Amino acid sequence: MPPRKPATAEEIAHLAAKMRVADPTRDNGAFSSLTTHDAMDWILGLGHIHELDPRMTSTRNPKEQREIATENLRLGLWDVQRFDYLFPNNPYSKTPNLKISRLQSWPNWKKPHPELRTGSIGLMKLDGFKDAARLNSYVWTHFQLTAFTQAQMVAMDPAKGDYGNWTGVKKMMGHASLDLTREGGSQVPFLVYFNKDVLLTMEVLDMKRVSWPEPGPKFLQTLKESQEVKFGTAPNDPLVPMLQTPKVPLVAVRYSYMEGRPKDGSQFFAHLESRMRETLPSGMSDDDVRVEFENHLRAGEEMPEETIRMFAQLLSYNADLVDKEWADEEQSHWNISNEAKKETRVSFFVPCLRPRFDVVEEIETGTPVTSYEKCGNCKKDAKNMCGSCRAVSYCCTDCAKEQWPVHKLDCKMSKKITSDPSSLPKDTLYIPARAYIHWVADFGFANEQELVKFGGPPVDEPPRNQYGPERFICRAQLSQAGKGQWDPHQQRMVWYHQNEGIVFLYDRRRSVLMRVGPQEPAKALVHNVVLPFHAAGYRQFAEVIQKRGIQGQLLFVWVRRVGDCIEVDLKDMPDQRGIRWE
């Protein structure tokens, strides 16, 4: 079959005669053009957010509503992109100034990986430790682990609607990362997403990377034990690359968003064609270069129009965050013309995760989350907690000693569950505030590391009390009551009575993550954790959930921290109608 004849410059100009370049500062390809409805839909699409700042309903001023919604979205986007990890000296603010040049470039990101051109991981044959270093060089490897939950990776086709658009944006990022990895940046100077006359084109300027926070000591020990089993390495050896802290990619781009066709053709396309010419053999004719350029355009990925626009708006938001000096310098590279500069902006994108739960709480309540840090004795500011129960803070050792005669009665409340359960108050349940396994609400290697270091408690250690002596609400979910289930620890079927099962209990911030039930102590012993069980309190608790809970399973309850335990009030219940968080 003879090679296809390329279009002439005149033909391209004619085809592009009706096209309009989107103004990135004004039209709906820009973050600033979001409506209140758009911003709220974005927030809901981030995940785990089911209600919005009450200030949205307390004011009827449309301008104020849009400002509140947009500011909440800015906070959510800042958090899901984890800018505080990439730029630890740039906390969230309305006018951040991100120094992208400070980040290390991803080594060999321009080196092609032809073994990935099928786009299928299943066809790759990797052998543990031997191939770990090569696997670690793939940008997409850790990107996928941090961008998507396991459930999202199972069903990668985005659903229609606002949530589907958000998932689609993450999918576009994942595909972009895969394309850059398998082909090599030198061969893929730009990425294209299209739908009819909507077009998003990104020229890849650089690939930066940052390491995820290091795991906590106990989780690190678990990883080392895992590598000893899987790879035969000594316990004190460094982690093999496959188990090392993931590297999060930041892709620096020059992008152009278009709706319609530019009157005189896209000057940015002319710039991209000249860039491609630099990567091709010097002996290629102009016609051959044009064919390669057009083939690359046609190889772009078709996505829903709304999803492309959302990605463009995210790029617009990120473009507002970067250091202007860096952006101006990038615009001066590659001899880009002034006409092409007018069609483009310099920006970046990074993996998107679900927001941390304290940020979710701030978005939903309109109040920044602050941990209780008052001395348990004199009520002055304090930061040092009781090292045993981590429930009470003190400003100094004198205050700790002075209060010890009172605090010691509660400090090891879990021991009283076993030694003197009859002394516990009626209509209460006491649960040791510690876990025996790592439990994460989301899936993913990086999510688990984050939970261990920043959120949930380490195994067999009480979590830091964030609420002080005040009571707070926990979500209680009763499961498996009255059902039979195979218990792998006992190697037999266990038939639970109607008032027995497992209750999962956690607060809005996920600072407390617990599971309690008659079978839990035996399961905890398998992990060398002694977990006292308040039997009488639990039976009453299960009955209350079945009588007053939604479908006999779900109930929000008042709790407070008492030493190394959570005290659940089984009489006074919060108004269930006013609580919507999950």
From TrEMBL:
Q: Name one Pfam family in it.
A: zf-MYND
Zinc-finger in keyword set: yes
- Asked whether the keyword Lipid biosynthesis is assigned, the reply is no
Give the Gene Ontology MF terms in alphabetical order: zinc ion binding
Any idea which UniProt keywords this protein has?
A: Metal-binding, Zinc, Zinc-finger
Matches recorded under InterPro entries: Znf_MYND
Domain MYND-type stretches: 375-411
Q: What is this protein called?
A: MYND-type domain-containing protein
> Which organism does this sequence originate in?
Mycena metata
